[in-house]
Design a protein that fits this description.
The protein is an alpha+beta fold. It has five helices and twelve strands.
Amino acid sequence: MGLFDTLTFESSEKFAQNIDWGKNKVPSQVIVLIKDNNRFQTKSLDNFMMNYLVSVEGYLKSQHFEEYQYVNPDDRPIKMAVEAIRKGEYWMDENFSGKITIIPDIYIDFLDQDWFVEFELSFKDGILEKTTCVDCRTSDNAERKQIQRDFIENLLNKIALREKLMSNRFIKIYFKIYAAPITRLATKMCIKYPKSKKFIRFFLKTFVPLSKYF
């Protein structure tokens, strides 16, 4: 999906009450799941992993944190200091007009189906005027949930095997003296030379037995 921004509502109850569902038939249980989660992804704004909030009054606000500026005490250039312009978290009114498309950031699972629900927020003169459900469809989620169960089971098995291996004194020595240093070096090399990842993985698999458990 790439980068996106996250949007929440100061009052998820008000958000749910004001939705124009049109011809879309959505079970009340699905609406409750969407409302209680109250986190949505959007690609209609900056797509820079920013956090946005729609206030109770309908204003779109963006999240920011304290900013700093350099100050020069007594006009002496050697002694530069940092001074906070704002302190802590604060939300800035975007004075936004236009349309924002949002989708829940979780799987909406109801009666063995995933519900994909898309909303359009219409702002005018900086205030949310209308919330419309523009798309609603379902898909069977048995395969997705099985993949999740298999992933969790494999992860737990891997953790259990690692703990068993690390309880062996000789494995501990092998890990400390040989496997760990090489694995750390390989990680650094992957970061520094991304194109060499395949070769490094092949090297670890071949010359560092059990490396996948470390």
